[in-house]
Amino acid sequence: MVTIHLSVFCYLLSVVSITCASVEEENPEFWRSLAQDTLRSSLSRTLNTNVAKNVVLFLGDGMGVTTITAARILKGQLQNRSGEETVMNMDTFPYVGLAKTYSVDFQIADSASTATAYLCGVKTNLNVVGVSAAARNGVCSSQKGNEVTSILKWAKDAGKSVGIVTTTRVQHATPAASYAHSASRTWYSDADLPSAAVTDGCVDIAVQLISNTDIDVIIGGGRKYMTPKGFPDPEYPTDVDVLIRHTMTVEHQWRCMRRSLLTTLLPGALQLTNENETLTIVTADHSHAFTFNGYPFRGNSILGKSPIFALDFLPYTTLMYGNGPGHKILNNKRPDIRKVDTTSKDYVQQSAAPLDSETHGGEDVALLARGPMAHLFQGVYEQSYIAHAMAYAACVGANQQHCAAVQPTLKDPGNSASDTPLWTVMSLTLSVMTAVLMH
Questions:
Q1: 84 Cβ partners below 8 Å, 6+ apart?
Q2: Is the pLDDT of residue 434 over 80?
Q3: pTM score, whole prediction
Q4: Does domain 55-75+91-287+366-400 have CATH number 3.40.720.10?
Q5: What are the structural domain ranges in the chain?
Q6: Any known ligand binding at 285?
Q7: Which of 103, 111, 113, 142 is an active site residue?
Q8: pLDDT tens column, 295-323
Q9: Is 174 annotated as a binding-site member?
Q10: Is 439 within any annotated ligand binding site?
Q11: Where does the signal peptide begin and end (predicted)?
C-alpha cells in the first residue's frame, strides 16, 4: 500500500519537476553540445611537465564530496539560479583523483593523522602529528626517533620560501603537521603537556612552531598559546578565549559558507599565479557523516526539505547526518519540521544516531589539481602519496633525477653566457589554506 502510494507520488513529482527545468535542457542537443565541448576540452589538453616554481595547497577541513556538491548548489542558489549546474573554480581544474584517508590504526581518521599523510608522506596513528605509526598517542617516549618531516621542511631545505595560512589556530593539527612532531595533537602549549611528557623531554607544539623550521609567513589564530597562562590578550583583554575554536557543531549552512570562503580565496590565488609555473591543489583531509538524500525538485533549496515524506509521514531535509546532536525522538516520533525554517543558520540537521558531536566520515576525498605535474594526481591513491607528488613536481626532497632535464633556464643579464636553473633562484610557496570548524 505504501509502495503504491510512494510510486504514484514519485510520478506526480516527476511531472511537476519538469516545470523546474529550463526549456533548453529539454532539447537533447543541449546535452550533446555540452558533452562535445567537454570532450574537445579534454582532447586538447596537454601535459604540463614544467617544474613547479610555486605550490599552493588549499585544504578544506572535512570537505567531503557531499560538502562540495552542497556548496556548489548553494553558490548557484545565492545567485538566484537553480544551483545544480553551477561551476565552481575548483570544478575547472583538469585533473581529479581520490585519496584514501584511513589511518594506520583506525578506519576513519582525524586531522592529525591525515595531515601527517598529505604533508609528510607517511601514514600514522590517530591523534599524533608529524611522527610515524611507531609512535603512540600521548606517549612522549614513543615520539623520539619516530619524527617525520614535511614538504614544508623539504622545500625550506632546498632554499625555498614557505608559509602557512589558516582560519584556525596555527597549532591545530592540520597546520602543525607541516612543522611539529608530537605524540599528541592536543599538546598546544606547555600548559597542555602532562608531567610525564615534560619529564621525558617532549616540547609543546607552540614552541616547535618557532624553533623547528624557519617559516616565512604564518597567518592564523592561537595567540593564547604563545603567551603566559592568564596573560590578557593585547587585542581582546576581557575575552577569555579569543581563539576561533571549532566546536564540532553539525550546522550545515556554516559548513557550506566556509567552503565558500575557500572558493573566495581560490580565485585570488589563481589570479596571482601562472598555471604554467604554479601547481594548485584543492583537497580535504577527511569527510564527515554528511548525506545528500531524498528526491528534491530541481532548484529546491539545498537547505530545504525533500518533497517526499518518510514512512512516518513526516518530512526530512535533503542534507542530513549519520550521527550527531540532531537525533531527537519525541513520543516515539521524529520532530515534525513542516513549519520549521531549515534554512536558518541555527537549525540543527536531524541525524540517525545520537551523539554529542558528529563524527568524521571514512570515504575517499577528492583532490583537484592544475598546473605543473598536475596529471600525477589522477586515479585513486593513498593520502600519503600527495606529499611525494607535490615534491616531485617542485623538485624538492627525493626523486629529483628528472629536474635537470625539464628545468627552464634563466639568462643572467650580466653574463649572457650563463644559464642558471630557474628553480635555484625562484621561491616555492607552500600555503596550507584551511577552513576549519571540525577536527
A1: 72, 73, 76, 298, 299
A2: no
A3: 0.85
A4: yes
A5: 55-75+91-287+366-400, 290-358
A6: yes
A7: 111
A8: 999 999 999 999 999 999 999 999 999 99
A9: yes
A10: no
A11: 1-21
